[in-house]
Amino acid sequence: MRDVLGQVLRWWEEGRRFGLATVVGTFRSAPRPPGAAMAVLDGEAVGSVSGGCVEGAVYELAAQVVATGTPVLQRYGVSDDDAFAVGLTCGGIIDVFVEPVSKEDYPELGEVAADVAARRPVAVATIVAGPGRVGARRVVWPDRAAGSLGSARLDDAVDDDVRGMLAQGLTGVRRYGPEGERRLDDLGVFVRSFAPPPRMLVFGAIDFAAAVARIGRFLGYHVVVCDARPVFATAKRFPEADEVVVAWPHDYLAAAEVDERTAICVLTHDPKFDVPLLEVALRTPAAYVGAMGSRRTHADRLARLREAGLTEGELARLRSPIGLDLGARTPEETAVSIAAELIQLRWGGSGRPLTETSGRIHGDSP
């Protein structure tokens, strides 16, 4: 959705009605995740819901939705009989919700777009299936909400769940009864979270940090590089970083915002920096804590951390030596190995070559 938001906002500001197709559910090896979007207006399409497999059919459906003003939930799956029929050649299944959008249909879009641009958290909940008002929409912020899904009780139930999903940056379908009953599944409500990007905190202003900052930015992280030495911690040396901070690493981390999506990469491999830093890092809720160094450095580091009072459970969270075993040598190759480990932990992959595995390529989100 972020990919098409600029064009969507321009059409909306011009007072035009267009079709917005969004992936709301995926099964098996679906090519794009929930939230992927394509917008359609007068012979023009931006974005993608399947990487090319069913875009033509979705385009036609979006044109119909704009003409009728009626939203539609459509499933696209495998094309078994005709190679040229509408289907996903990858073998996956996607549910696509197509809705008409204009200032009248979606008056909150301007405010949502402004929040996304400013990296302020906001979520949009839309009824996509069931006996309720399909297409009804509610915009939820951490401290308020606008619009209605049909009843106050349903709105209250959805608000609670959406704020929990927004805090974790989750997007997907939640199911309720007509009045928000969580034990029922009459209504399908798609929640699209626009959370601030996860943070990657890179400690140690070295050439490896520059490469990690580049790949972290590529993966969508808000990247911070921190080092106590002002001569090395400069924006000129780290142009891909969102922030470059001069501070003692452990002092900075103790005051920094760290949540369950944060990745911490300790590249200092100097005991006077990394031991006090890891004391703090391993006691945060960060999703990933990795530290660079040889196996000998790692063993010495563990001994020092035990002396500092860290428990075996806390030490078990440490990814050291950092990264997957790719045989990496250069800073860029090492950054790829770190990125590979982050992706593996996010999605639960085995880290093995796909030629050595069988079954589904894209597993369920862990």
Describe the structure.
This protein is an alpha/beta fold. Helix content is 31%, strand content 23%. It has ten helices and 16 strands. The protein has helices at 5-13, 55-68, 109-117, 152-168, 207-218, 249-255, 271-281, 295-307, 312-315, 331-347; strands at 18-27, 37-41, 44-47, 72-76, 93-101, 122-129, 137-140, 145-147, 172-176, 187-194, 199-203, 222-227, 243-246, 263-266, 288-291, 318-319. Strands 13-12-11-14-15-16 form a six-stranded parallel sheet, sandwiched between helices. It has a five-stranded antiparallel sheet with strand order 3-2-1-5-4, with helices on both faces. Helix 5 packs across helix 10 (331-347) and helix 6 runs parallel beside helix 7 (271-281). Mean pLDDT is 90; it is low at 80-85.
At a glance:
With 366 residues, the protein is α/β, with parallel strands linked by helices. It contains ten helices and 16 strands.
Largest sheet: 6 strands, parallel
Mean pLDDT: 90
Percent in strands: 15-25%
Say what oligomer this is. single chain
Task: Please tell me what the overall shape is.
Answer: elongated
Helix content: 25-40%
Q: What structural category characterises the helix and strand content?
A: alpha/beta
Across the major sheet, the strand order is: 13-12-11-14-15-16
**Low-confidence segments, ≥5 residues, pLDDT <50?**
80-85
How far the N terminus sits from the C terminus, by CA atoms, comes to 23 Å
What is the number of strand segments?
Answer: 16
C-alpha-based Rg, rounded: 23 Å
Helical stretch tally: 10
Order of helical and strand elements:
HEEEHEEHEEEHEEEHEEHEHEHHEH
